[in-house]
């Protein structure tokens, strides 16, 4: 006969971990809506969980003001403890997962543009050939400031020294040229030289968006490097769009809306498939501006890192 165990008072007094997870997410993003998006649940579910937690604790954890929320003094105390506990649990789980030979976690970090235009089309083939690797992709423009406890195994960016503890391998340098669709080219006036681009609709990155590619290159810079002054247009053309998101710029070009600057490593496949074309052969080549593969030195010899490193170098 099994021995009866008395109720564990510590566990009995614990609040719902699901409610605590919703609370931590809401505190982190200062928004119930963004917390819901990060947890892949509804905003109503997050609100309900937090109300239950507040009822359990007998205090208000958030000060609500319209759609924004800020932590109350009691909420700040609880958040510090809860966040630290979750980090400890996550790190312990990760150490156990790493020791399991059947499951090999791998965390990759790159820009949103590289994730969408380079990795995403090739990812199914990699996953099919490496079914035992559990890959997590972090797409960000801020490689220097990351959440506590997040330490990618591999960075792919334009920094040869992203942080301490990583070794760097040069991948490629920047090659930039105009791209558009065949339809736009047919409907546009003849394009044969950089000068002809002055009167085209030029889809551009905003200054903030250029940071994920090449901070100093936009249409004005690209054309000036080909001795073309955009301000000298005989008939100024309305520029309908600019964005900090390079993928959006390229999608507009694919939708026949104008000419975009194409970074070869991001649009080369689209050009090869005929989705986009190069209206003129001119380009700029930045041999002093390179992309690098930065690998954690303490993980560089792991099977997952080695396979991904060999795969991406082979692809490039």
UniProtKB/TrEMBL annotation:
InterPro entries: LysR-type_TF_proteobact-type, LysR_HTH_N, LysR_subst-bd, WH-like_DNA-bd_sf, WH_DNA-bd_sf. Keywords: DNA-binding, Transcription, Transcription regulation. GO terms for molecular function: DNA-binding transcription factor activity; sequence-specific DNA binding. One of its GO terms (biological process) is DNA-templated transcription. Residues 15-72 form the HTH lysR-type domain. Belongs to the LysR transcriptional regulatory family. This is LysR family transcriptional regulator. It comes from Rhodoferax lacus.
